[in-house]
Fold this protein.
Amino acid sequence: MGHREDLLEGAKRCLLEKGFARTTARDIVKESGTNLGSIGYHYGSKDALLAQAYIALIEPLGDTFESSRAGGSPGEGGLERFQEIWGNIIRSVPEARPIWMMTLEVITQGERLAGIRELLIEAQKQGRSGITALFTGIEENEIPADVLESEGRLYTTLLNGLMMQWLFDPASATTAEQLTEGLRRVTRRMWEEV
């Protein structure tokens, strides 16, 4: 590996151990076996490197969320697909806990992590696209803007709320079955009112 890759791997290890706020450039250099100048040369700043490391940690998670009903026609699977994907997301929590904790750190410490926060706001848009593709079955690059801005925001909001619950108290957190039944009831009630 070259310095660029070494820095990224070192930053990933630092993030998992210390999080964003406590990771210093010197920590990354020590962990990667590189030098301080390499960070600026390859990534521009420590914040940019940490943002890239976080994205590299969270991207593979999406693969564990996929439904066995993926493929097929867009929208295929309905509530069964919805429940299966949320179940997959929830099952990923124990192993991915440090990554979700970093997400929470960015949310709660955003003011102190201004450089990182701005970079991750852009990454959040990409995440919204990925989660929308999972639930709709539409290829990411083919998702209409209105679907991304409506359904994508709904799924992202549900994901963030669900992760908060599972990080805070897994014993009382909402299950995929409860989330699906809630959606079923809300939808039924809405149709009854029409």
In short: The radius of gyration is 19 Å. The longest helix spans residues 145-168. The chain has ten helices and no strands.
